[in-house]
Amino acid sequence: MSPRHRDALAHLLYGVGTGGGFILLTGEVGTGKTTINRCLLEQLSDDTDIAIILNPALNAIELLATVCDELRIDYDQEKHTLKTLTDSLHRYLLDNHNRDRKTVLLIDE
User: Sign of torsion, CA 25 52 79 59?
Assistant: First the structure.
């Protein structure tokens, strides 16, 4: 990795380690974003739960359902709504926080 890639990775690791917030990594196609993301995943600690979304062209309900699926969050597969999915994800995040676990959502286009 180039120095810029290592710098971007360091920022991502710092952001995950501080325990909250959003981190955005942008760049043109072919600049190494996916490579940096893979390096990030290799360096995350065991107290981190990860959801990886590879198809961001989903509507809001599909995106939340995919996040819940990735994190193995139970929800009613037949009668889910934006609210029920959000509520399920919220409970999961609060529980993870109470257990001192980190949750990372990685969306890679």
Answer: positive
